[in-house]
Amino acid sequence: MSARKSERLVNLLITLLVARGYVPKDRLRQVIPDYRDAATEESFEKMFERDKDDLRALGVPIEVGGFDPLFEDEQGYRIVRSAFELPEIDLEADEAAVIGLAARVWQQAGLASATTDALRKLRAAGVEVDRSALDVAQPQLANDEPAFEAFWQAVSARRPVSFSYRSTRAATPAVRRLEPWGVVSYRSRWYAVGHDLDRGEQRLFRLSRVVGDVELTGPPGSFTVPEGTDIRALTGLLAPETPERTAVVRVREARAVALRHRAAQQTHGVEPGWDRLEVGFARTETLVDELVSYGPDVVVESPADLRDGVVARLRGTLSGAAGAA
Amino acid sequence: MSAPSSARDQVNRLLALVPYLQGRGAVRVDEAARDFGVSPRTIRRDINVLLFCGLPGLGMGDLIDIDFEAFEGEDVIRLSNADYLTRPLRLDTTEAAALVVGLRALLEGSGAPEREVVERTLRKVEEAAGEAAGIANQVELLPEDAAEHALRERLGTAVAQRRQVRLSHRSAVRDEVTSRVVDPIAVTGSGGHTYLDAWCQLVEDRRLFRLDRIADAEILDTAVTEHAELPPLDLAQGIFRPAPDALLATLRLTSSARWVSEYFPVESAVEEADGGLTVELRVGDPSWLVRLMLRLGGSATLVSPASLAEEISATAEQALARYL
Fold it and tell me: Where are the transmembrane segments (chain A) (predicted)?
């Protein structure tokens, strides 16, 4: 039956495309064989509605209109050629090769097939897409996040979503509701950024932490992204923070190599076997994580909160060990 | 991207097939199949649908004309009488955005000479896609660090030219800088970091070097040894691959230390009533575990091995003594 349906859809499309004005529904019923053969007005209507939806889902712009003052009931349909056709696109051979490469960036099944469809259209427009090698690195966007396509769809249709999200701190995932404004790729991971409906503020979610299916909870166009929203700026917390404070630490000779690498100042031999470093930092806890892992090779001189943080962490290790013993 | 009906798929293909065939005159079925990424059988089925399509009325002169003898006899398609379908349908939003984002990813990964052609292509595609490309603006690809990018390109060159590299590498586990000559095998990514997969002449074993821990890399004139022939690693399961006979440690994690079980492959994990976890993990180098435990502070304890737990306490005491 699907061949017959394809045939009907193509004939409907051609009829609307070649007509000079709006085509009334009863005219369509006369010229499309399946519509003509429909047993009742109701079954025709149903079939026609579904066909229109199918064509629109493919991106075919079917317009409704044509209220002729002389024929009040004559509502009709048309497809405007300029909105239907792919505009002229004239690609040089090297540009066509780039298109071939771009199509291979996607590993996600749905987007890979969308690029295949796009390539077909370009071929049909006369572009000879060349897949021969071009001296360009072949990046591949991360593909291990099953939730990606659902978020992509939600972002493009402006539909709110609901999903289970596993945070690092809790044993069980919690349900989160989000108006997704955009998706972001950073360091081979995908993130969704948007308005968190429960927290009432902007939040960022790592898609690999989404558990199970993503539910679309509203119709298309349910929300608008506030004007002037800069998706990239919202992801600021992904990029390293600007160091605003300076830590002064004493470091044993030749130790703490990663810390030395970042140090703004190094003074060698402040006492035998010890150097002094000045290191910029943004978040105290993050620097405590690093400094404490060097054990007795690093001693914090200032600031006081950093020093206290390291001392508290070391005491924690000792009391934890005592508790376990 | 919802599961489309097969009729919808077919119509989408037909709307590209008609202008494609008209623009090319005579096309072999297998050639069209290759260009469309489908089987020749699918193309034949598509043609059999088009035989019944055409202008309203669908009379003799209205139907799309397909040279039936050439089609049946020679498997060649000649399609005409469809001058109202000489252009394909516009790109829809998903197609346009997938292509535009793909091109941007290519742009991020391109060196200066190639950037120009990618930029040029991107401009033309964006223009042809029109509004449909708009959602691509909702997709951001944050670039990697410039220094790391340059290093990645340099190491990529070494892999391609099959030349040895002298690395100066900061080991996070051993907290030392070492210089070594390696046979590069591949540059690869996992878990948000890029690594050089290489045979290390210093330890005479294969190693992964994280790019942001490489202080310096010098491409040598010497060719790689046969060790570079090893197939590149599949990092899909992560980069921590301790030997199966490596030390087995048991950690009791409180809820705030649960992330450990996500970052490192654990052999077992048991939920505890307080929201914590007890995990077992393989440890390649004990000094790595000492550093991890110090970092975790009181939010985790090492249940076994006891000897290592003692070493951790001793290290913490020594460190604390410097503040007293």
Answer: none
